[in-house]
Write a structure and sequence with these properties.
256 residues; mainly alpha; 3-stranded antiparallel sheet; 10 helices
Length: 256
């Protein structure tokens, strides 16, 4: 079975929990589609976690603006053999017609607060619930972690370098955007820089140092190639020795 982790925008409605469709079908059978209000919030926070940072709102709005069921999505739901034809016809025509009120991205919020309110016909609000929570949840968690780092950094420059350890490509982009939103100065992620206008930063690789005969030679070669972008990676072999080597190279190049 091929593994395809790309999310086609036309498949977003299926990024859902099955029970959202069965519940909605039951509502539909009984004509229960009056206006409803769904509130998003956090009931309680872990110890020593006094706040969270709002993020993910723009993505939610993009999803809702384009929310629709392609015929391929309807065919998949039909193949499950549990939904009636009239409900599937209803889904074919479904668009998000409601309203969204939310805190601004980057705002702090606390347990018990409503951070987003979705008002829409009941079935619409029900079906979009998982994707709304999915987009807000991970983005807000990442922004909150970044804000906590920013708070203890006391003005130091902070750069996000999490791509290689992120849970997939989307998570890497989301981490870059969320951390920048929370006060980080930039990211190592070049695609995030292109998409979101985030300043990009870099150091050097361990492999660059290991490819040279010595650490000092590697530092010097890199500094001569990129004199204004030379952040030395000092922990390839021995961190303290690496610091001394980096200082020696910097002094020598400054004297040249």
């Amino acid at each position: 079975m091929p593994i395809d982790l790309r999310l086609d925008p036309d498949e977003v409605p299926l990024l859902n929990d099955l029970y959202e469709f069965t519940v909605s079908a039951a509502f539909f059978e009984r004509g229960m589609n009056a206006p409803a209000s769904f509130d998003v919030g956090v009931r309680r926070l872990p110890p020593n976690r006094g706040f969270m940072v709002m993020a993910g709102v723009e993505r939610v709005l993009e999803v809702l603006e384009n929310f629709h069921f392609e015929e391929s999505a309807i065919a998949h739901l039909e193949s499950l053999g549990i939904f009636k034809a009239d409900f599937l016809d209803f889904l074919r025509k479904l668009r998000f017609t409601g309203t969204v009120r939310a805190m601004r991205e980057g705002s702090l919020f606390f347990a018990g607060e409503v951070v987003m309110e979705v008002r829409a016909p009941l079935i619409e609000a029900q079906i979009i619930e998982p994707i709304v929570l999915n987009q807000l949840g991970i983005a807000s968690v990442l922004a909150t972690k970044a804000a906590r780092c920013f708070a203890v950094g006391q003005g130091r420059r902070l750069v996000e370098f999490g791509l290689r350890r992120a849970q997939g490509a989307d998570a890497g982009l989301l981490a870059a955007r969320s951390s920048y939103l929370a006060g980080f100065h930039g990211s190592s992620n070049v695609l995030a820089g292109k998409r979101y206008g985030i300043p990009v930063f870099g150091t050097m690789s361990h492999s660059f140092i290991m490819a040279h005969q010595g650490e000092r030679r590697a530092f010097e070669d890199f500094a001569r190639s990129f004199p204004k972008l030379s952040t030395m990676l000092v922990d390839t072999y021995d961190t303290l020795r690496g610091v001394h080597n980096a200082v020696d190279v910097a002094r020598r190049l400054k004297a040249d």
